[in-house]
């Protein structure tokens, strides 16, 4: 049976440029929709984070005016999946050899910790060298930034990818006062960032890398990961 690792942030606060604290957590749809599809396809799914810390739910993702009418189902699925799994695995104790795919959901947490997490960087670099499937959605692609070599060269430079856009960050109301914006930073680091319409599903596959732009892209990203894994079976 194929195994997929979902890597969560452990951050519950995002410090802004003015020193204020913005509460964050995992975005329900971005965790639930991929998990649902992976389990339905017959894959074993593990959860991990820095230090094995369980991140709280981002309450915005439980608000139907923000996250859509189906958000309650996503919240329930995500919480049930995490409860059933139990304590999260620690990134420091994980090797790429154990998994067929690694997937990074969003919420703002990845721009707080995952983008500079050395354990995640090691894991992603090893997975990419082995040709394992790597998926990321919304702010999850921030975690890709962690994969650099000793000279600072980025593993994913030159690769096509999608991520939460700077325009979407402005529309959400979190661009002003943000320490940095994801899409622009990915481009600065050498990514070939592409984007669709704000808050509409948009995914890109570049060889073993599958990325989605926003919460609406969570299920399509997961479907693309499943398709990629089935093609290798």
UniProtKB/TrEMBL annotation:
Protein name: Dimethylallyltransferase
SUPFAM superfamilies membership: Class I glutamine amidotransferase-like (SSF52317)
Keywords: Lyase, Stress response
GO cellular component terms given for this protein: cytoplasm
UniProt-listed Pfam families: DJ-1_PfpI
Record organism: Streptomyces aurantiacus
Residues spanning the signal sequence: none
Family: Belongs to the peptidase C56 family. HSP31-like subfamily.
InterPro entries with a match to the protein in the record: Class_I_gatase-like, DJ-1/PfpI, Prot/Nucl_acid_deglycase
Gene Ontology BP annotations: methylglyoxal catabolic process to D-lactate via S-lactoyl-glutathione
């Amino acid at each position: 049976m194929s195994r997929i690792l979902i890597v969560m942030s452990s951050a519950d606060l995002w410090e802004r440029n003015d020193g204020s604290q913005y509460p964050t957590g995992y975005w329900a749809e971005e965790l639930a929709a991929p998990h649902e599809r992976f389990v339905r396809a017959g894959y074993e799914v593990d959860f991990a984070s820095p230090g094995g810390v369980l991140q709280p739910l981002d309450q915005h993702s439980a608000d139907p005016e923000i996250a859509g009418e189906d958000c309650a189902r996503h919240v329930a699925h995500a919480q049930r999946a995490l409860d059933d799994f139990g304590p999260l695995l620690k990134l420091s104790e994980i090797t790429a050899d154990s998994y067929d795919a690694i997937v990074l959901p969003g919420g703002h947490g990845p721009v707080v910790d995952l983008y500079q997490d050395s354990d995640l960087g090691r894991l992603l670099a090893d997975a990419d060298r082995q040709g394992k499937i790597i998926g990321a959605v919304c702010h999850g692609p921030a975690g890709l930034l962690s994969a650099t070599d000793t000279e600072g060269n980025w593993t994913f430079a030159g690769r096509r990818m999608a991520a939460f856009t700077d325009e979407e960050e402005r529309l959400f109301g979190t661009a002003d006062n943000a320490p940095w914006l994801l899409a622009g930073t990915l481009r600065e680091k050498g990514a070939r960032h592409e984007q669709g319409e704000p808050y509409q599903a948009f995914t890109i596959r570049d060889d073993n890398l599958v990325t989605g732009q926003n919460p609406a892209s969570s299920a399509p990203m997961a479907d693309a990961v499943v398709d990629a894994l089935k093609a290798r079976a």
